[in-house]
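Chapter review: from sequence to fold.
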Amino acid sequence: MGKYDEPLDRFLTLDGEKEFRNRDQEFDLESSERAILQARWEEGWSCLFSALCSITEEKMDTIVYIRNQGHTIIEAINRQMMHYAYHVGQMVYLGRMIRGKEWESLSIPKGASQTYNEEKFSKEKGRRHFTGKYLKKNNHNSGNVFLSLVSYKINSKYREV
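The token string follows.
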């Protein structure tokens, strides 16, 4: 059992800052092997999705605590999404530093707004995901969009890390 495995009801009853967590130690690289890093990555996401799957309509009014601050479930999810966005920004910044001039923008490249908009507005309105070209190019499904994008963006020399 990993350290993130816990009964799902604990998400709703225990403080979000778990007793087993050592924040300072989280910044120590336990391994540089891709397989180990991937396993830790999957373990963390599994914890999140298990907690999300445990939420039912009857539980939506439950107050959950993060460092003794009460949040509705929606507030806690929004807080966590913003926290993830912060870390995604860090990873993008690092990827950009690593790739240098070879970096491909995750958004609209500087100086390409007009061409980008012309291409987008030349298509019929419809529901499609903005990461579709990366997912198709790398043969990934949408369940791992972020990892697909990061893997695609950072050159193979650094993928082995």
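Two observations follow directly from the output. Residues 73-99 form the longest helix (27 residues). Residues 1-74 form one domain.
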